[in-house]
């Protein structure tokens, strides 16, 4: 059975109690990506609803839970999902401070590093460090499936937000320019929120992003 990509959209609240947001937070839709076949799967991000993720996995063996970055809405179902599916959580160490804001002293299982590789259903998934949105943001390149999972680094229409003190607009643009826009133009881009796009579709927007700042 050939490897395939499945998109699960989960909905939940983000930012409860944070300054500038309603007390209950704001509602967000997130993409959770499953990559694999009928026997095994990797999960990319774990947002809001562990039960929904577990149902989407079904009886398949879960080879790992890969996190694109440490923001609450991408990790808030990670521990419950990993426990339910008996798998390991991977996060870049530069985002450990964000993980700790949500989970305290309960650590992820393993550190992600630039170039780390995962194999699922005969497909290699390579980790690419793309800081800017957060210091530890990464993307996952599945060349065999013609896809990059971009988290909150690259969306349809532009880069992810850089409004936090630990974020950097010049850095996210550099990450996109040097780590993502060097990928084949036909490669699909599956982000952490919203619709998918492609490298070629986003490349012409670079100068507009720089002008907008």
TrEMBL record:
<dbReference type="GO" id="GO:0016787">
    <property type="term" value="F:hydrolase activity"/>
</dbReference>
<dbReference type="InterPro" id="IPR001279">
    <property type="entry name" value="Metallo-B-lactamas"/>
</dbReference>
<protein>
    <submittedName>
        <fullName>MBL fold metallo-hydrolase</fullName>
    </submittedName>
</protein>
<feature type="domain" description="Metallo-beta-lactamase">
    <location>
        <begin position="29"/>
        <end position="193"/>
    </location>
</feature>
<dbReference type="InterPro" id="IPR036866">
    <property type="entry name" value="RibonucZ/Hydroxyglut_hydro"/>
</dbReference>
<dbReference type="Pfam" id="PF00753">
    <property type="entry name" value="Lactamase_B"/>
</dbReference>
<dbReference type="InterPro" id="IPR051453">
    <property type="entry name" value="MBL_Glyoxalase_II"/>
</dbReference>
<keyword id="KW-0378">Hydrolase</keyword>
């Amino acid at each position: 059975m050939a490897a395939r990509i499945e998109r699960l959209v989960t909905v939940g609240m983000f930012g409860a109690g944070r300054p500038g947001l309603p007390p209950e937070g704001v509602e967000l839709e997130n993409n959770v990506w499953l990559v694999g076949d009928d026997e095994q799967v990797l999960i990319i991000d774990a947002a809001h609803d562990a039960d929904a993720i577990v149902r989407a996995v079904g009886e398949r063996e879960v080879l790992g839970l890969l996190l694109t970055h440490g923001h609450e809405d991408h990790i808030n179902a990670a521990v419950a999902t990993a426990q339910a599916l008996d798998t390991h959580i991977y996060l870049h160490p530069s985002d450990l401070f964000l993980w700790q804001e949500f989970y305290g002293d309960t650590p992820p299982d393993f550190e992600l590093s630039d170039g780390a590789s995962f194999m699922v259903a005969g497909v290699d998934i390579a980790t690419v460090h793309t800081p800017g949105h957060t210091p530890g943001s990464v993307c996952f390149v599945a060349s065999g499936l013609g896809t990059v999972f971009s988290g909150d680094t690259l969306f349809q229409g532009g880069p992810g937000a850089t409004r936090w003190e630990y974020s950097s607009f010049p850095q996210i643009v550099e990450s996109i320019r040097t780590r993502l826009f060097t990928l084949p133009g036909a490669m699909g881009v599956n982000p952490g929120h919203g619709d998918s796009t492609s490298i070629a579709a986003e490349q012409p927007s670079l100068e507009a992003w720089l002008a907008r700042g």
